[in-house]
């Protein structure tokens, strides 16, 4: 998802659902940091933009493709709102 005010990528994820359905899920059950960002946008009458990064990824490769994209964005210094997992352990959110 992209911040419409800055064109900054703020979240990278995967979906096998239509993008609007996936966005609705984020709005209903956001992480604390995503909730804060979505609330900021809503107060300004804005909504996040959705940009497809990769299409036609085989279902079995979705997790790997998502992690590659998140890692690459992190190396580029993007301030993502993704909750980060190490193995099966949740790491604290930082910003």
What does this structure look like?
The strands form two sheets. A two-stranded antiparallel ribbon has the order 1-2. The protein has a two-stranded antiparallel sheet with strand order 3-4. By secondary structure, it is mainly α. The chain is built from three helices and four strands, in the order E-E-H-H-H-E-E.
Largest sheet: 2 strands, antiparallel
Main sheet: strand order = 1-2
How many E-type strands? 4
Q: N-to-C terminal Cα separation, in Å?
A: 17 Å
User: Which stretches are low in confidence, meaning pLDDT under 50 for 5 or more residues running?
Assistant: 86-95
Name the helicity range: 25-40%
Strand content: 5-15%
What global shape is seen? globular
Radius of gyration equals 13 Å
What structural category do the secondary elements indicate? mainly alpha
Quick rundown:
By secondary structure, this protein is mainly alpha-helical. It has helices spanning 19-28, 32-43, 62-75, and strands at 2-3, 8-9, 85-86, 89-90.
List the helices and strands and how they pair.
Blueprint: E1 2-3, E2 8-9, H1 19-28, H2 32-43, H3 62-75, E3 85-86, E4 89-90
Antiparallel strand pairs: 1-2, 3-4
